[in-house]
Amino acid sequence: MSEFLQSLVRGLGTGSVYALLALGFVIIYKSTRVISFAQPAFMLAGAVLVAHLSPGVGFFLAVPVAALVIAALALGVERTVLRPMIGKPAFVVAIITIGVDVVVRVVTNAFIGLDVLPVGDPWGLATVSLLGVDVQQRYLVMFATTVTVVVALFAFFRFSRTGLAMRAVAHDQEVALAQGIRVGSVFALSWALAGGLAALAGVFVATGAGVDQQLWVVALKALPAVILGGLDSLGGAVAGGLAVGVVESLVGTYQGDVAPWLGPNFALVAPYALMLVVLLVRPQGLFGAREVERL
Prior knowledge:
This protein has helices at residues 2-32, 39-57, 59-82, 90-109, 137-159, 161-171, 173-178, 183-206, 222-229, 234-258, 270-281; strands at 127-130, 133-136. By secondary structure, the protein is mostly helical. The protein has a two-stranded antiparallel sheet with strand order 1-2. Strand 1 and strand 2 form a beta hairpin. It is globular, with a radius of gyration of 19 Å.
């Protein structure tokens, strides 16, 4: 039982990172109908910025500052690189976001070097007793922070005028324009939100382990979470991220005893296997809306 609880908490903590990244993917897709592949670079840049800021201003101030800076960076990318691409095929814009990802990561790697940078988190690998089982504090912090951020985001989209405008643009851009909503501003805000979420996710990935040049690879696990939950569902992004984290953790814990013939590293591909199974049953994802096109 203790092993299961430890694995579950670890999965929820790791899944929280995937959920934050998946939310960024979905927010941009719902607004612009484009999948942004620049999220891994924003995640890495956010973690590196916290690593450099925390010795001077402290970890708890460095995190929101880094999130705001990366949000501004993402907004600037949308304004200068992607805004001229409005009206171009979504595939072309997606390829451009891959170029943005490469450029940002190359620049960020210059501030990492060959060493691992600590982000200055106060808990590290320390443990705390939960229901009589020792679990790492960082996983509890990840999950609690993600819940808080998700609640704040859903309240923003539900009750604020700007959030309602973003929902209107996600539903129908032409109707939103007819109602006087500045669609371009919504595009920029969606990128800023996604950048801030990616930065926060990067900090969580680096807690207890530090930042290296391969940190961005973790963001690839968010893609199965997005597909699993549905590209157009914010709730699905959260559920998909947590599900991927829990499945990955449980497979890593028990697969060696239950199905050793799958190999020692099957947990690394378990999220993609889960995505494949879901796509075979529900191609639009568990929470995605089914689209019907008339020919």
